[in-house]
Specification:
Elements: H1 2-16, H2 24-29, E1 41-44, E2 64-68, H3 74-92, E3 97-108, E4 114-116, E5 120-125, H4 132-148, E6 155-160, E7 195-198, E8 208-209, E9 212-215, E10 228-232, H5 234-237, E11 245-246, E12 256-259, H6 262-296, H7 302-340, E13 347-354, E14 358-359, E15 367-368, E16 371-375, H8 377-380, E17 387-390, E18 395-399
Helix pairs in contact: 3-4, 6-7
Length: 404
């Protein structure tokens, strides 16, 4: 009994001072804010010298970070020399890395200020292949290598991840009605009424649309927020109506929101194909009319010849325009099929809030059926115009949102 107790005591003491042990809270929240689905921390070399702040009260805000590139630092001049050596070193230790990159992280403060952290050698390893102890043992040599190249104060941070295909292209921008794709690009355009579906409702083929966009000025804790959200219905965003859903602070798994379900996407590409076919028929008719006018030019009647010359020039110009539109629409058809047909590449946000559907809300005449989702900046920022409605012939700007 005494021996067993002594062994347990030794093991507990060893665990308590374990230099590579990351707490569960830090593992999950360390990269909070850098993306819609941030990675989990495996290990970091400054674990003991720079402790991660733990929550101290019921409403303690989780630190939010933004990832930045490494600019104007000693690492820039030597990266092309030091990076290959880091990779070779990892291989020599049998560490199966997927990505080695440099970054800096800005930590936002509640009062609106913040701080930019040190240079980070950010290493992703293939899931299940590297332990925290492996990362702990390898980090000192990487830091020593950096110091030999004049890079001091850097940190090595590790997480699990694999290299995958990018999430997909940015959503399309609204165009003028002079663009050949104007009438068939709406299903992939960032405007009000944009068709959406969620990952969890794929099997049911449930689909809906965006009501409007808005910018969240501040979080519930009063911290300035860069988030832009879309509004739709609860029955569009969630498969069941069993409980209120809140992403932040609930530990709930992210629920992907996609532009177009499979049925709506297929309808969109079919519309492109149908328009190409319609223009092809127009081109054939114009070619026939041009041939008839060319025969008319052989007439002995001067009035008919002049009329044929004028008509021929107009028909030839129209045929050239139709052919040009066909080429652009065929290119757009190939683009839509090539870049958007994989439904996972159409992910453009995650569900943020969706209370249960309820009747008699705020009086007997109202039903509450609403939800919000956070927009993926990479999908929206390039071509996002705000609350724009496509009425067929014109685009109206109602209320601008923005991404920062």
């Amino acid at each position: 009994m005494s021996t067993a107790f002594s062994a347990l005591s030794v093991e507990s003491t060893a665990t308590a001072v374990n230099p590579y042990l990351v707490s569960e809270y830090e593992r999950i929240t360390f990269y909070h804010g850098i993306s819609l689905d941030p990675p989990e921390l495996l290990y970091r070399s400054d674990l003991l010298t720079n402790p991660f702040p733990l929550p101290t009260g019921r409403h303690t805000a989780t630190p939010t970070k933004t990832v930045y590139g490494v600019f104007n630092t000693p690492l820039n001049k030597v990266w092309h020399d030091v990076a290959p050596q880091i990779c070779e070193y990892l291989k020599s230790r049998g560490i199966r890395y997927s990505v080695v990159m440099a970054a800096r992280f800005f930590t936002h403060a509640e009062e609106g200020k913040g701080s930019l952290g040190p240079i980070v050698i950010w290493i992703a390893t293939h899931p299940g292949t590297t332990t925290a102890q492996d990362a702990h043992d390898a980090s000192p040599d990487i830091i020593s290598l950096l110091e030999e190249f004049g890079v001091k104060g850097a940190v090595v941070e590790w997480y699990e991840g694999t290299v995958e295909r990018l999430a997909g292209p940015a959503l399309l921008r609204p165009t003028l009605n002079t663009d050949p794709t104007f009438y068939v690009r709406r299903f992939l355009t960032a405007v009000l009424g944009m068709p959406i579906a969620t990952k969890e409702t794929e099997d049911d083929d449930a689909q809906g649309s965006v009501g409007f966009f808005f910018h969240e000025n501040r979080t519930a804790g009063g911290v300035p927020s860069p988030r832009v959200l879309g509004v739709s219905n609860r029955h569009v965003l969630r498969k069941t109506n069993d409980a209120d859903y809140l992403l932040r602070g609930s530990g709930a798994p992210p629920q992907a929101v996609r532009v177009c379900g499979q049925r709506r996407f297929q309808r969109g590409v079919n519309e492109i194909k149908a328009l190409v076919g319609h223009l092809g028929s127009d081109a054939e008719l114009l070619a026939t009319e041009i041939a008839m006018l060319e025969l008319q030019l052989a007439s002995e009647n001067q009035d008919e010849v002049e009329e044929a010359e004028q008509g021929l020039a107009a028909k030839q110009a129209k045929l050239a325009e139709v052919k040009q539109h066909i080429v652009k629409l065929e290119e757009f058809y190939n683009l839509a099929n090539g870049q958007w047909s994989d439904i996972e590449r159409r992910d453009m946000g995650i569900v943020d809030w969706a209370p249960k559907i309820s009747v008699n809300a705020d009086g007997p005449n109202y039903t509450l059926d609403v939800g919000t989702f956070v927009l993926d900046e990479a999908k929206f920022k390039t071509n996002f115009k705000g609350n724009v409605i496509d009425l067929g012939a014109f685009l109206f700007d109602l209320l601008y949102g923005y991404l920062v």
